[in-house]
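User: Teach me something about this protein's shape.
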Amino acid sequence: MSLYRAILEESAPTGLAPTTIELADRTTVWQLDGSAGFAAKVTRGRAAVFVCDKAGALTLDALKECCAPFGVGEAVECDASQYLLVIGLVDATALMALGTDVTASPVEFSPTSDDVRTIVGTLDAYYYGYEDRYRTVYDNGAQLWESAEPNASLRLMIEKRPDIFAGRIIDLGCGEGRDSLYLLSQGYDVTSVDVSHSALARARERAAAAGLDASGFMERDIIYLRGLDAGSFDLAMNMGCLHMLVDDEQRARHISRVFDILRPGGHFVVDHCASEWGKGFFSIPDYAEVSADLVPGRVISRRIRVEDGEKNIGLEVLPYAERSGDALAEEIGRHGFRLVSSTLTDTEAFGSSTMLLFQKPAA
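Assistant: First, the predicted structure itself:
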C-alpha cells in the first residue's frame, strides 16, 4: 500500500507511526521533509500546501505554481526529491504525516516565507466565503441555510431519467446535504463533497438523526477532487455549484476532473444559473430592489429560516457566473462530454437556470 493510500485510510504500515503537526497560527510557515518520501493529510482546519522540489529554485513564480488549499481529509504524497511548505488558513489547523524520519519545523528564510504569505493572502474568496456564510447563518439561529427538501431540479431529473441514478453517485458541492440525504434515504450509494466543514458537519448530523450512513460526506475541493480514483463513479451531480466558480481555469480543472472520475459511459448532471442570478431565490425575496447590489463583495440583506419563523441578516455576495445553456454545453463539451439533454429550470434554489445532462463516451 502506498503512503498516500495508507494515510487516507489511517492504516500505517508496520513500523511507521504517524506524526501530528499543529499549525497554531496563520502566519508561521512550516517545512515538512522526509529522507525517503512521505505523505501528509489535513486532519483539522485548512492549510495552503506547497509541493517543492529540493533541487528547484524557490522563486515566486514556482511557489505560485505549486500552491493549493487543502481541507480536512485531503492528502498529498512527496517522494524523496520533494518537501512541503505549509501554512494554516484557519487557526488551529493540524496535519498528520506518515513516513520515515519525517521532520516538521517552522521556517523563516526570507524572502520565501514572505512570498508564501503573499500568495496565501491572495487566494480566491471561494476558499473562505462558503465556510463564512454557513457559520454566519448558523450563528444567527438557522438550523439550515438551504431547504431540507431536495432540489426541484433533482426530482425532475429523477423523473425524466431514473436510469442514470445507479451505481456510485457523487454530489459535488453538496452543502448541507439536501440532495445527498434524499438519495441516501432512497437507498442510493452516494459520496458527497464540499469545501465547507460547517455545512458538512450539519449534513452528517442530519444523516445520523435519520439513521443514514454519514461516512460519505467528505471535505474536498471540487476544483481538484483529490483522493478520488479515475473511473470510480457512475453519476456526478453538480447542482448549483459550478456557477459559483468564476475563474475559467478553475472551471476547466473541475470539469476535467469530473471527466476523470467518471467511468466510461457515466453521466454528469449540471444545474447552472443562466441569467439574473438571485432572482427567485428564497433568500432574496426583494430581488428587484437589491439586484443592482448583487455584486461580489457587497453585503446585502438575505432571508434565513429560524426556529420561530424567518429573519434577515447581512451576508456578503460571493462570486458567481452566469452561462446560457448553449455556452455551458460548449464549455463542458470541450472536455470530452457529449450533451444528452438540456432543460430550462426556474427553482427556489437556483432561479433561472439550465439543467444539462452529459455522458462520458463509453469507448
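Now, about its shape. The chain has ten helices and 18 strands. The mean pLDDT is 89. If you'd like, I can walk through any region in more detail.
User: That's plenty for now, thanks!
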